[in-house]
Design a protein that fits this description.
- It is built from nine helices and eleven strands.
- It is globular.
- By secondary structure, it is of the alpha/beta class.
- 36% of the residues lie in helices and 15% in strands.
- The protein folds into two domains: 41-148, Rossmann fold (3-Layer(aba) Sandwich), CATH 3.40.50.10860; 150-278, Rossmann fold, CATH 3.40.50.720.
- The chain binds ligand LMY7XDAE.
- Residues 60, 106-109, 131, 151, 253, 272-274, 276-277, 279-280 line the site of the ligand Nc1nc2c(c(=O)[nH]1)N[C@@H](CN(C=O)c1ccc(C(=O)N[C@@H](CCC(=O)O)C(=O)O)cc1)CN2.
- One of its GO terms (molecular function) is methylenetetrahydrofolate dehydrogenase (NADP+) activity.
- One of its GO terms (cellular component) is cytosol.
- Homodimer.
- It comes from Micromonospora endolithica.
Length: 302
């Protein structure tokens, strides 16, 4: 744990909680685990699937492939045309399921209109689900069983631990109940672990007086996916504010947390370079752990 990379937001007093140093630390651990696997003759493989012509998605896939190569992963890639059918996508996933040399698989989201991402995910072998979003993995998370964790929730827990923000016994409020962030994050942060163990409340924006909940949070995680929804008047003075929820306009990030919240918060994730980098790092952590599980190397916990 280190606070050496934390800086203070100019004119506000809130400490910044950047994600980049957290991601670097996680990726360094992943690189060691990859090296150990390769030394034992196993080349961990993270397969990626891109459907359609979305420029932003193609860019993210390129970044992940470059990173995979730097870390020592093999990264087979399948690109399907925008005209691909659900059956085409499911066939690709079934092929990766059957390939013992592929340990982890990622389908870049979103898929073109007409395809169902969630239904495709259900075809994937849960043990190869690098995003940690398969229903079986959600069930494992709910029960505290080992398995790939959803990347953004896991990244948020790691970010807070890295910056020395204690959660145990503290009041954490998650604004948003979505399947990719709010719901799994609440399950994760309530677990009995030193870096979690929080008193977690989930409130959603359909609750008319949701600010009543967010204003009492010691740690507030915005997970609503509504740009700018969290404003200073929704934040308890001195609270830790994490911007987890984002919308994208192409590659432009539209965060939930208005930057003016830094006037009130004690610590806050930056608009850019906060949770995002930790999400990608967790993806590689899930991938190397999937490879370790597949070859039966040391028991890997959550
Ligand atoms: N299968 C998946 N699809 C998608 C995921 C995912 O995790 N798995 N997430 C996003 C896209 N994405 C990775 O794929 C991604 C997007 C953005 C970032 C990031 O770190 N962004 C920066 C902001 C950059 C800027 O605005 O200048 C940040 O948050 O600081 C990481 C990953 C959708 N699809």
């Amino acid at each position: 744990m280190s606070v050496s990379d934390s800086t203070t937001v100019a004119r506000s007093g809130a400490r910044l909680l950047p994600g980049a140093p957290v991601a670097r630390q996680i990726l360094a651990e992943v690189a060691d685990e990859v090296a150990a696997l390769r030394a034992s003759g196993v080349v961990p493989a993270l397969a990626t699937v891109l459907v359609g012509d979305d420029d932003a998605s193609a860019g993210y896939i390129r970044i992940k492939q470059r990173q995979a190569a730097e870390l020592g992963f093999a990264s087979p890639h399948v690109r399907l045309p925008a005209s691909a059918s659900q059956a085409d996508l499911c066939r690709v996933l079934a092929d990766f399921n059957a390939d013992a040399g592929v340990h982890a698989v990622l389908v870049q989201h979103p898929v073109p209109v007409g395809l169902d991402y969630d239904r495709a995910l259900q075809v994937l072998d849960p043990d190869k689900d690098v995003d940690g979003m398969h229903p079986v993995n959600m069930g494992r998370l709910a029960l505290g069983l080992p398995g790939p964790l959803p990347c953004t929730p896991a990244g948020i827990e790691a970010l807070l631990a890295y910056h020395g923000v204690p959660l145990s016994g503290r009041e954490v409020v998650v604004l948003g109940r979505g399947a990719t962030l709010g719901r799994p994050l609440a399950m994760l942060l309530a677990q009995k672990r030193p870096t979690a163990n929080a008193a977690v409340t989930v409130v959603h924006t359909g609750v008319a007086d949701w600010p009543r909940y967010t204003r009492r949070a010691e740690v507030l995680v915005a997970a609503a996916g509504v740009p700018g929804i969290v404003r200073p008047e929704h934040v308890r003075p001195g609270a830790v504010v994490v911007g987890g929820g984002v919308r994208y306009a192409g590659r432009r990030l539209l965060p939930d947390v208005d930057e003016s919240c830094a006037r009130v918060a004690g610590a806050i994730t930056p608009r850019v370079g906060g949770v995002g980098p930790t999400t990608v790092a967790m993806l590689f952590r899930n991938a190397v752990r999937a490879a370790r599980r597949a070859v039966g190397s040391a028991e890997v916990d959550q």
